[in-house]
Amino acid sequence: MWIVNRIAQAFVARCEKKYNKPAAQLNIAVGMDTRISGKEIMSAFMDGLLCAGAHGIDCGIATTPAMYMSLVFEETAYDAAVMVTASHLPPNRNGMKFFDRDGGYDKPDITELLNAAAELEDGFPDETQARNYECYELVERYAEDLCDKIKNEVNAA
After folding, report:
1. Residue 107: its pLDDT value, please?
2. Is 87 a catalytic residue?
3. Which residue would you say has higher pLDDT here, 134 or 58?
């Protein structure tokens, strides 16, 4: 999982540059689907975030749209989000989708991120950082938002 750790560190560096703020002020949400490898990938990614000095938010089991909305909801409004998923690929595959406030990363963004990660060393949080992140039940908030939208449309008809 060393590469996941390095990718997380590169993601933090990219967000620092994009938002012109230090890692310590970045809030990055991470969610996963139910693939068996999700917890291990998410853990390695969170370690990389913490090592780079960012604040990681564990959103647990989530959906890709919910992770994007973690950037939009007023009470979360995170700087960036990552979804550990392989979407429609077989269960033995897994990967990550990256989002910032401008939307999802495309091929040039991913290429840049991977090239930056290749230049980094493995990093691990020290004892004060280890597992020092908050958890947020994003799926509950996302479901509530969807229900509210449906109710509003039904009542408007």
Report:
1. 95
2. yes
3. 58
